[in-house]
Amino acid sequence: MIYITQLIFIKEGQEELFHQFEDVAIPLIAKYNGQLLLRVRPQSSAFVESNMDKPYEIHLVSFPQQEDIDRFMRDEERKKFLHLKEKSIKSSILIQGKKL
Hints:
Number of strands: 4
Distance between the termini: 10 Å
Number of helices: 4
Radius of gyration: 14 Å
């Protein structure tokens, strides 16, 4: 099992565009054998210490194998809405790992 953690930083005022992209992308995860395990929108009070910008959302997703991730990333329906992601996300950090 492969785990993907994504820290997502949104451009100010572009939250609705981001939500529109997520409304398309998140349901597609299951199509490629993935599972959204966590989708967190942390409040400022949740941070004990921070040396970086605080993310708007944190996602934890699992996929059985790398091929499933690659197919999800190439999904044609998802690609049609990438412009919403590009307009709304300032940056993101993607961390890939496995359960120990």
